[in-house]
Design brief:
The chain is of the alpha+beta class and 339 residues long. The protein contains 12 helices and 15 strands. The strands form 4 sheets. Strands 3-4-5-2-7-12-9-8 form an 8-stranded mixed β-sheet, sandwiched between helices.
Length: 339
């Protein structure tokens, strides 16, 4: 509790949430330094990741149950990566596409590791890995959807949905990000101000929109329909495990909504599976009323990584990613009803 990382988390999430998150996740000793006059970019990056991990576990019941299982067994989780979706399209006051997120990641010390074309989804994924602690700080998998590859009607719906987007970062926040990029650290008061602002970037930034626009998006892209209701929230968080086949069998026996098959990379070193997306209730506009409907929300993933020489293989696989994206491809499960 005397570390800078704990103090950061407690300031942003509260003491109880910080304690719970520390109890759930493995944290590298190099990130557990006593609080000093400044906070490093690595400590800020880890604090952001831990806050976003907790957010997913609160929104995905199967994830919460799994994490509770691990805690009862005395096991901590290794947070491998978090994923989110963006749209390469004008977005109101928000920078378009991945720029809304990479303006935060770069000052924190994340570097572009590799692009992953996802042509079946008309998207591009990009992995961002931390320069200082690549194996210990969870990566970000940031995907961009390309509306120009869809129909004109689809593009018009995207424009309407995103047009009300606000920018969660104030000019003072951007100034702190520039300072962090330059100095690789921030004074304590600045770090305490910036962390909540960065957390706000991983959310939906646009307002209510017509149900008919959601239905139009869903006809051509389940991924864009998901972005319409969930925005830039973490699409999923991922636990790095030792034996994925055993884990999948255990979760299936427990009746958890685990994916039927395990995705295996072309190299054979990266294996992935996931729980299916939680269903969440979202509001839409319809004929002058606000209506609610159950739609796919976020999910929770598992990954097993082999070693390449003396290093962990931190790469991703486009085919694996395409398979994992299907976790949120389900249609809405209820007719809209007035709220």
């Amino acid at each position: 509790m005397d570390t800078a990382l704990y103090r950061l988390l407690a300031s942003a999430m509260g003491e109880n949430a910080a304690r719970e998150t520390f109890a759930q996740l493995e944290v590298a000793p190099a990130l557990l330094k006593p609080a000093g006059e400044t906070v490093s970019r690595a400590e800020l990056a880890q604090a952001l990741n831990m806050a976003l991990f907790r957010d997913v576990t609160l929104r995905v019941p199967a994830a919460a149950a799994y994490v509770a299982d691990q805690q009862r067994a005395g096991q901590k989780l290794v947070f491998d990566h978090g994923a989110l979706r963006t749209v390469a399209w004008p977005s109101g006051a928000l920078p378009p596409g991945e720029a809304a997120i990479t303006r935060v990641l770069r000052p924190l010390g994340f570097e572009l590791a590799s692009p992953y074309p996802l042509p079946k989804l008309k998207m591009t994924g990009r992995a961002w890995c931390h320069a200082d602690h690549p194996e210990d700080i969870a990566q970000f998998f940031v995907s961009e959807l390309h509306p120009e590859l869809f129909s004109k009607g689809f593009q018009a719906a995207v424009t309407r949905v995103l047009s009300t987007s606000r920018d969660p970062l104030q000019p003072s926040d951007m100034a702190l990000l520039e300072q962090l990029a330059r100095d690789r650290c921030l004074p304590w008061p600045a770090a305490l101000q910036l962390l909540p602002a960065m957390i706000r970037c991983f959310d939906r930034q646009h307002g209510l929109f017509p149900l008919e626009d959601y239905q139009a998006l869903l006809l051509e892209s389940a991924e864009m329909a998901w972005i319409a209701t969930e925005g830039n929230a973490f699409n999923h968080a991922t636990d790095r495990v030792v034996d994925l086949n055993a884990l999948a069998a255990t979760q299936k026996a427990l009746g958890r909504p685990i994916k039927d098959r395990i995705e295996v990379s072309a190299s054979g070193r990266v294996l992935q599976t996931a729980f299916r997306a939680a269903q969440v209730r979202r509001e839409f506009l319809s004929e002058g009323r606000v209506v609610g409907m159950e739609v796919p929300g976020s999910f929770y993933e598992f990954i097993q990584r082999g070693r390449e020489g003396d290093k962990l293989d931190l790469r991703f696989d486009a085919a694996n990613a395409t398979g994992i994206f299907k976790m949120t491809a389900g249609a809405a499960t209820e007719e809209a009803v007035a709220c």
